[in-house]
């Protein structure tokens, strides 16, 4: 719980690396993770230009509203992946590489080895601290990938999360996407379960293809809450208008935070009296419930909530 709670990628916004206009627009947004794209949104004749754009952009400090910068490279085996990684892996402001179409652990082995051998290191005789390792997110897009989740999740310590690519998965299995998303229930549950089992911080849900207007916003919110209910803690976004919806939905809501604060404050008093189980609002509270409450508060703090102030408000809460 602690790992998943302390790393926040509520919204992962794809931005085409070949579009100077969209790259500039992304710097104006407040977003947990911007994913500069070299894959699907960039045509073959624009790949080199997109790499050059990202080299220039990532040499500059992150925008004030951007928490994490990621780059989605082309798939391992595409013939483009090495040039993609070589172009960006030395960038000082790159946090994450997104590997698409991960079918087996070997795809991640290759990426991790490349990053390990090509990421700059300070000379051994200096006191300069080493740069933070670039993390990896793996896109799960096929039946084969789903069947290999165990080995994928154990492939490298650099792996920081799984992303579900619904459209490619539907293509692989000849599925038709429906508004209920029930055809993806098994795959989505398997991905979230694997991410939790191997303590990966991020489990990022499918893209919402409804974009604009009240109906699009409503669909986006429904999908976010549905994904959160399954255990996802973030969502892929393909339009800036989707970002705020995702970041609100995947942050702990006010009542949830209030409950968590009351549990933690009362538990401190219960422990002082030697009580391992007690009640709050007529419901039993024990160690697993307290652990959940602490995880909610950790995530709330990372999302910018004044948890200290909330604890002060409920400082007199007692176990029943």
Question: How would you characterize the overall build of this protein?
Answer:
With 320 residues, the chain is α/β, with parallel strands linked by helices. It is built from 14 helices and 10 strands. It has helices at 2-6, 20-26, 47-58, 81-88, 105-118, 143-147, 149-153, 166-173, 185-197, 213-230, 240-249, 254-272, 287-302, 307-313; strands spanning 11-16, 31-37, 66-72, 96-99, 135-140, 159-164, 202-205, 234-237, 278-280, 283-285. The strands form 2 sheets. An 8-stranded parallel β-barrel has the order 1-2-3-4-5-6-7-8, surrounded by 6 helices. Strands 9-10 form a two-stranded antiparallel sheet.
Radius of gyration: 21 Å
Low-confidence stretches: none
Structural class: alpha/beta
Q: Write out the strand line-up for the largest beta sheet, numbering strands in chain order.
A: 1-2-3-4-5-6-7-8
Mean pLDDT: 93
Highlighted features:
two-stranded antiparallel ribbon, alpha/beta, 320 residues, 16% strand, 14 helices, single chain, 10 strands
Q: What's the gist of this structure?
A:
This protein has 320 residues and is of the alpha/beta class. The protein has helices at 2-6, 20-26, 47-58, 81-88, 105-118, 143-147, 149-153, 166-173, 185-197, 213-230, 240-249, 254-272, 287-302, 307-313, and strands at residues 11-16, 31-37, 66-72, 96-99, 135-140, 159-164, 202-205, 234-237, 278-280, 283-285. Strand 2, helix 3 and strand 3 (66-72) form a beta-alpha-beta unit.
